[in-house]
Amino acid sequence: MKKLLILVLIVASGVVIQMASKTTITENFTAVLEIPRLLNKDSLTIKSRVLAPEGYKRVEYPKGSFQEYLRKYKLKVFGTQIKNYDNTLYYWQQGHIGVLDISVPENGLQQCADALIRIRSEYLWDNNRKDEIGFNFTSGHYCSWEKYAEGYRPKIDGNKVAFHKKAPEDFSKNNFYRYLKLIFMYSGTLSMYHELPKVNDIKDLKIGDMLIKGGSPGHIVMICDEVVNGKGEKLYLLFQGNTPAQSVHLVKNLENNGISPWYKLEKDAIIPVSNYTFGSSRFVRFK
Questions:
Q1: Distance set, CA 287 to CA 196, 235, 254 (Å)
Q2: Any idea where the domains of the chain sit in the sequence?
Q3: Chain segment 95-154, per-residue pLDDT in tens
Q4: What distance in Å separates the CA atoms of residue 245 and residue 185, rounded to the nearest whole number?
Q5: What span, in angstroms and rounded, lies between the C-alpha atoms of 286 and 134?
Q6: Judging by beta carbons within 10 Å of its beta carbon (0-12, 13-18, 19+), is residue 248 exposed, middle or buried?
Q7: Cβ(140)–Cβ(154) below 8 Å
Q8: Residue 13 CA to its chain's centroid (Å)
Q9: Is the separation of the CB atoms in 283 and 198 below 8 Å?
Q10: Do 221 and 207 meet the contact criterion of CB atoms below 8 Å apart?
Q11: pLDDT by residue (tens digit) across 188-207?
């Protein structure tokens, strides 16, 4: 009788656990598919696509700043899918609420760090700050646009890099993109983590700062908008490129649908972003 009672209890427990598991899976799946309520689906910029949560307002930045440049970045129409560099659809289409209007080269080089390097470089180019364009290789060697435009090219032998005058001067936009291709080949999250200034106080975070895991592989996402409430509490929007190279996209907050796509960011925290989880958050800033 006791054995029969125990068997009944085990079966009943299994049914309860199975039902609970199904409920959890269903709830999580629904949360992923649900469109965040803070969206203006007809808008074509980051700032106009996403509304500020109740009680929050956008932090002001000067006109012409990198921060305003990112806020006003153009988006493709709502519902645009993420495509890989070879024009195939990315397998995960449930984690974004916008695709940035930026091309993805067919060579596959414009991965997560590369996409952010390109956006930063294009901002500097468009604002006549070309002399500031330059990045470290993973080896630690600095490669500037100006030297590249003057005709200097790297000779790379393992971790040894030497620059030699090998090409005629060319300051054209086409040559600028050839320069970026070189940077994409020899730079990445690891070089960016070691090269760029760290943001150690979470209160100092601003648009344009990046959440980073330096490594091979690593990952990186960029803050592209910022709101604050009366208590000084801030929320942020994030976009990312990815590996394989694919459409740069504005991500949902899959952990908190109440404020999605906004994120509350903390230092040293576990922060899931779309299909990647930062195990211990660190932040860096372009110089």
A1: 7, 23, 31
A2: 1-33, 46-284
A3: 999 999 999 999 999 999 999 999 999 999 999 999 999 999 999 999 999 999 999 999
A4: 13
A5: 11
A6: buried
A7: no
A8: 43
A9: yes
A10: no
A11: 999 999 999 999 999 999 99
